[in-house]
Task: structure prediction
Amino acid sequence: MVNTSTPLKAESKNLNFYYSNGHQALKSVSMPIYENKITALIGPSGCGKSTFLRCFNRMHDLYPGNKYEGQIVMHPDNTNILADGVDPIEVRMRISMVFQKPNPFPKTIFENVAYGLRVRDEKNNRVVADKVEEALKGASLWNEVKDRLNDLAFNLSGGQQQRLCIARALATDPEIMLFDEPTSALDPIATANIEELMNELRGKLTILVVTHNMQQAARISDYTAYMYLGEMMEYGDTDTIFTRPVRKETEDYITGKFG
Amino acid sequence: MSSEHIYKQYDAELESVRAKVLEMGSLVEQQIVDALESLVKSNTQLAENVIKKDHLVNDLEVQVDEDCSHIIARRQPAASDLRMILMMIKTITDLERIGDEATKIARFAQKTQETDRMWTPRFAEIKTMANMAREMLHMALDAFARSDSAKVLEIAEMDQQLDEHYQMSIRHLITFMLEDPRTISMSLEVLFIAKAIERIGDHAKNISEYVVYMVKGKDVRHISMDEMLDEVRD
Result:
């Protein structure tokens, strides 16, 4: 059903996830994540798409009692990032995340982007400055902020703050970027800018995006997965999912019908 | 198609445009019947009516086009909704052309009143062909109304038969023209009518192919009967 010539970047294998209250939020989810492609996760609220996304940077570890079963295997090294011995901090270096609401740190624009490098103990200021510039350019923000890098990040507009968060995520050279409804708090122009940016990042890194906006999934993604009640209902290339989905559940969801 | 949209207004919009396509279809079907009748029965008044009514077909084409573009702009249809919209946009083009062919036949009907009708029997063949073409159109519209993708096979078979009839009538007409050069101008007129009917069959077949796309998301244009059989059954 999908292009097999594209290499895999990651793969979830029979992934189950239980919240600490015992609720099973993911039920044996298996799906491929292709390298340097955009994969969109769609589905109604509570379907598990954000839960699934958060497994990829071990965010659920922040709360006690949450439990993973199954694997998320990273390629080419075949590391199961859910394995016991794997340090979540290491995982988050490889897989970074951008959230629904822009969440810059209460620091300057420069220091926001430099943060990940400082955490990595990068002491060379030249290297940090170059990386910050590169990341801001990569996030299409450089031209707007290059003359005020020492301003507080909160002075930026919402769309700029979101691009700053993308720059912050880019600065550590992640292999995968996770976007959790990255534009739902933004106006249409800022949304278009973020989507354009994601389109530019395609081909350079692997993107996994959760979105409630189906047209957004249709516009930007190469592959789309439809989730419902913790299960992967249908996965396929985006053109197919939006023109002739196989399952009735998918059809009903994307056409806006009652299930 | 099966279940309802959360937006009730969207359902109403889709239903309204679908009803217009079907209305256009039955109007066009009647145009074929009337055009043929005017030809066979030498009814110039009826022929005149057919020609006059063509603008109704054209108006519906414009309306459906407009409605579809509104739905695309406002609703961003996906999956089966999208396929139905695309299907209807294409269907009305074929229906409009069928309307034109009917008008053509009506024009010939008017003309043949003025010329010498030396061999009425030729119209028997035309009549058979026209009935086939009309039946094909009726089936294609019915397939659209019922979302019945299997009808395409029957219609494709009828289209082959219609083509054979057309070839046969060409041979007959050639024989006539060879035997008596005075029949040439009349034979050519009949040939054009046969051609118009043959085209109606092609348009009906196109519509039935769009129905397959609408229902199954499969493109069955420009493939052999065997391949079509596989696609429709599967």
Notes: The helical segments of chain B are 8-40, 44-75, 79-114, 122-146, 151-179, 184-216, 225-233. Residues 79-114 of chain B form the longest helix (36 residues).
